[in-house]
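Supplementary notes for students who missed Thursday's class. We covered one full example, reproduced here. Read the sequence, then the structure, then the short commentary at the end.
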Amino acid sequence: MLNLAVIHEAIGRALPDEECLVFRDRRFTWSEFGDRTRRLARVFQQAGLGCHRERAELANHESGQDHVAVYLLNGNEYLETLYGAMKARAVGFNVNYRYVDEELAYLFGDADARAVVFHRRFAPTLARIREQLSGVALWLQVEDGSGAEPFPGAVDYEQAIREAEPLEPEGLSPDDLYLLYTGGTTGMPKGVLWRQEEILRAALIPPRTEAELDALVARATRSPGAVRALPTPPFMHGAAQWAAFSSWHAGATVVVQSNPERLDPNDVWSTVERERVSIMTLVGDAFARPLLAALDEKSYDLSSLRTITSGGAILTAATKDALLEAVPTARILDTLGSSESGQQAVQISKPGEKASTGDFDLVDENQVLREDLSGLVAPGSGETGWLARTGPMPLGYLGDADKTARTFPVIEGVRYSVPGDRAVAEPGGRLRLLGRDSVTINSGGEKIFAEEVEHALKHHPAVYDAVVTGTPHERFGQQVTAIVRLREGARVDEQELRESCVSHIARYKLPRAFVFVDEIVRAPSGKADYRWARATAEAAL
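Structure (token representation):
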């Protein structure tokens, strides 16, 4: 059966005494992790949470299951909550722990949260907005040593698990939901509703039939624990969740770094060395560059590392080359996808090969649609279109029928997911990514993709990080404005940066204005925060 909890239970029965998850000094076997999630499922069930309307009764933008807000840093509790909710036929959803009161109140209201699982450090924030969250039936507080004032009426997470009887999951279905909120870096976050069968096929290692499930379990038992996977991004980011789920489907051990509060490069590399991690997931240059800088200061035994995966943000060619040089045992799997599409394209870089930026091989059931959505772009034509997928895709956006219809249009009887990425189809199934349309800059009638300019800027050795946005311009309507963080001690003027970009982009795309900053604000996932970028640029100019 194509259901995440069913698959996890099946592998757990086959590998009861093998390590399932490692976090700090806690090592959970598959049997222990399964028992904790079943007890947590009982806690949710006793609070009245579950499935109240089956999929056949609902429109694509509707949910018949109760929603559990996962307001946590990385740790065993995050993944336990997701799977515990599934086993009660409720559904967990990701909460950005950097959100302020107003953003959180919007998110919980949009999701109609019925339960909140949170680290104690977030209790004061929740207390301030509690009156706006009258629909919450259960508050589960995870102790984190922060010393924050506890949340009145909250139940201690560990106590709740200890006192609950394990719930044997019943009625689990391929129609059960997987709910992932978008990052909200270009607008308000939206809840993307997937059937579990569809997210398995689109983004994870999917057994398609009962026989394939048996085969998957058999493969997982051949070399249990041989693969040890470290997703470094926050689990509130889809790429980290998908990395953990897929690793478990291969019988791997999921490892969580000791310091989940921020990206701590030395903690990450220490974890790789100590736990003999073989697969590590990161998010573009925002994660890779600090990790590489740490290797200049201290050496680690990284010989166990075989694959470095990246998704969700730009991983430039220069950074790939540096990673391959620093970790010669590894290859780099650069993936392209989104909350609304799953995996769409990949690029593999190996030691000894010259890496590139923005060029991918399309995954099956993905293609480029014409700008007017009238058909497919001809490969090699140079025409800019929309990256789209058919086949497995989300049902839609929670509570938003109009946006569901726009993002998932039916064209000539075929339903597509069109999340908003612009691309060019190259011959031989290749793809050249241009960037997200929502951050496109219209300057003098020309469309300029922010991410394309960011790629170009990062080729200059003095540039540590860059985000590009549009700011008002009297003549052109908008101008390209680059917010740049230079490497420590680096000096470079604006014209030199422009000239450096010329070999990568046309002159009309060059930044007209620059804002130099000591730090670029990104989401904890590593993605660019374009709302921050626009406000910072406009304030500076």
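Commentary. The mean pLDDT is 93. Residues 204-357 form a domain with the Rossmann fold fold (CATH 3.40.50.980). If anything here is unclear, bring it to office hours.
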